[in-house]
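Quick start: read one record
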Amino acid sequence: MRIVFMGTPDFAVPSLQKLIDCGHEIAAVVTQPDKARGRGKAVTYSPVKQKALEYEIPVYQPVKARDPEFVQILKDMAPEVIVVVAFGQILPKSILDIPPYGCINVHGSLLPKYRGAAPVQWAVINGEKVSGVTTMYMAEGLDTGDMIMKAEVPLSEKETGGSLHDKLADVGADLLVRTLDALKDGTAVRTPQDDSQAGQYAKMLTKSMGELDFSRPASELERLIRGLNPWPSAYTFVHGRTLKLWEAQVIDKEYEGQTGEIVEITKDGFAIKTGKGALAVRSLQLEGKKRMDAGAFLRGYSLEKGEILPSQE
C-alpha cells in the first residue's frame, strides 16, 4: 500500500521498520520539528526521522499539521492510508478524510480503558495485569475511533514503563501489518468503543509526578517507581540532593516511626517506612552519580537509621 507514516518517538520506530520490511511504499514520513536539547542546545532529530533518513524517505516536519498548506501537500501525495503512531498532534478532519482506507492509529493500550498520552506507563502505575495494543480508525476525538484489532500483553511482576514500552512497540508493529492486510482484502471489522468502559485518562507524564510521597502505601510507591522508569523517574531528597529510586520491594510489615523514616539498614540496602508497609530500596542513583545497587551506595555514603526522607540538610 502507498502510505504516509506519521510518528515521532521510539515507540513508532518498530512500526515504520515493519512497514518497510514488508514492502509497503512509504511515500513520506511526517514527524515533529527538530528540537534543541542539552546544555549545548544541539539540534536532535526524532527517532522516526532518523529511521526515515536511513532509508532516504522524504521527511516533513510541520509545526501544525492542520495548516492548509500542509494538508494540500498530503492530498497531493495521494496516500491509500495514513498510519499514525505517537505522532504528537491531533489531526483535523481535513486530514482524516484524505486517504481512502482512512487514518489508522496504533495505540499502546487495550482501548477504551486507557485513552490519552501515556497509556503504557499508567498501566504499570495502576497495577494492571494485562495491557496491549489496539489499532483503530482515527476520529476527531482523542483515541475515540472505531477499533479494528487488539493484541494482549501480560505484565511481569517487575515490569517497568520502559520494558512494557518496548514490548508493546514490537507487538504494535506486527498488529499494524495484520491490520493493513485486513483493510486491503476487505476483512477488517469496525468495532465502536464503549464509552462506558473508558477508564481514567492516561495523562502525560511530568517530572513532578516522580516525587515520592511516603504517606502512600508501599505497594503504590513500588508501582510508581517501576512505571516512571526510565522517565521521568521516581525520586526523593537526601541531604539536599536528589535521590532517584530505580528498584524497590514491598515489605509487608508495620514499623514504628514516621512515614519517610529509614527504619532498617542492611548490607544490601535500606527500608523506608510508608503509609502502609515499607519500601526496601534495591537500586538507586544519587544526583551527579551513576545508577548503582543500594548496597554499593551504602558502602560509599552515610545514611543513618532514623533519618527522615525527604531531607534537605
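The chain has a mean pLDDT of 96.
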